[in-house]
Amino acid sequence: MTSTNWSPTPHASSRNAFRLVAGLAVALTLGAGVGVVAATHPRAPGAGAAPAVPATVTVTAEAAPAPTVTIPAPPVTSGRAAAATPADRFADGTYLVGTDVEAGSYRSPGPAPGGNGHCYWARLRAVGASKIVADQLTTGAARFTARKGEYVQVAGCEFTRG
User: How confident is the model over 51-91, as pLDDT tens digits?
Assistant: First the structure.
């Protein structure tokens, strides 16, 4: 009858692990011994010791408080929107007569200072194939009458009702 060894053979990695653990234990023991010797036998100042390095200290300052901003409350109103009144004086732009500007006659002394030297106005229909009812390009004074519901377009001058 043959004899059988039933005890397992250790794997190579477990043998390496044992060597690693044993090496760490020796290193810790030696390190502890060196630390005890250094603590019980201090060196004399200037006896081969490295010069002292100044310590770095970090101080965190508290930030200044943020300024207080006060926003006034909107005025108390009755809840009804104020009716917008059409302007009786206007310059460059396109305006709806009766809503943006008042219906009536308008005059301009001529081109605005610092402009291109021309004044243009046009009365325009809201709808239709030909939108221009009347227009004028001038270098002098200008006058037209705007009717409610049509548009007025102005460029290079200012018109005043009257």
Answer: 666 777 777 777 777 777 777 766 665 556 555 677 888 99
pLDDT in tens, 108-125: 999 999 889 999 999 999
Is the model's pTM score more than 0.85?
Answer: no
d(C-alpha 141, C-alpha 125), whole Å: 24
* Residue 134 burial (10 A CB sphere; 0-12, 13-18, 19+): exposed
> Which residue from 156, 109, 150 is spatially nearest to 137, judged by alpha carbons?
156
Only one residue has tokens 């021309």, namely 118
- Sign of the four-CA dihedral 115, 120, 126, 129: negative
Residue 143, strand partner residues: 107
CB atoms within 10 A of CB 17: 12
Query: For residue 157, what are its two tokens?
Result: 């001058």
Q: Is 100 exposed, middle or buried (0-12, 13-18, 19+ CB in 10 A)?
A: middle
Q: What share of the chain is helix, strand, coil (3-state, %, to 5)?
A: 20, 25, 55
Q: Is 146 helix (H, G, I), strand (E, B) or coil?
A: strand
